[in-house]
What we know:
The chain has 68 residues and is an all-alpha fold. The protein has helices spanning 6-18, 20-25, 29-56, 63-66. The longest helix is centred in the middle third of the chain and has 28 residues, at 29-56.
Amino acid sequence: MTQxxxxxxxxxxxxxxxxxxxxxxxxxxxxxxxxxxxxxxxVTERIGQLTTELLQQVPMSQRAxxxx
Length: 68
């Protein structure tokens, strides 16, 4: 089983707290886990894409400092 990153954990906690019926509608615990793993992967990939896009806007000489 893949461990969720912070983003997946926050999403799961939100659904557990504020959307319990929607969480239940996802199906079995295995189906719920699959949903949050997929969501976690999409969010992580998107953050990577946005980071790359933003870094491309920073002058090359300043990129190392921008990554900190």
